[in-house]
Amino acid sequence: MSDVQKHKSRRNLLLVIAVFVLPIVLAKLALTQNWLEYGVTNKGTLVENELTLQELGIVDDELNNMWLILYALPDDCNEHCEQTLLSVNNTLVALGKDKPKVRNVALYKHSLSSDQLSHLDQAIWSVIPSPSKQHLLIQQPTVLLIDPLGNIILEHKPPEFVEEQAMFGKGILADMKKLLKYSKIG
User: Residue 50: pLDDT above 70?
Assistant: First the structure.
């Protein structure tokens, strides 16, 4: 073999090795340097500690065997709270054919005004006074997604600004659709 052919064959060998080794090296770097976000598909945060409706002190036969979107209302349900109620209500409407499997629940600490109650359609919402245990386990206003067995799965924090309400509702809707799609219960 001539020197030109040896040089050409070595170059080809190095190119073949680079084609196979370079992607592996880049993938390893991407994992070790955290270049990519890991497989997070849910919009809310998973509830780390095991928590059920019974532990919260909520026992209602009407809520058994249904998926629940539970909104723990703040002490004072102001305009921001009413916007969150509207977002949760719109989420239920947007579920379409899965709507009969899901029920909205509002937990209140202090009695609601007639204007606030007008936003809560009794056909869609179950309005329940907050049990004493709930204050210890849920400190702030939050929206919880609960499976038909009473397990609290996901938590969504209501947004601080009105402009974020649309994305908030879309996040709950995406999580709820995914849970209903992949669940073998309910």
Answer: yes
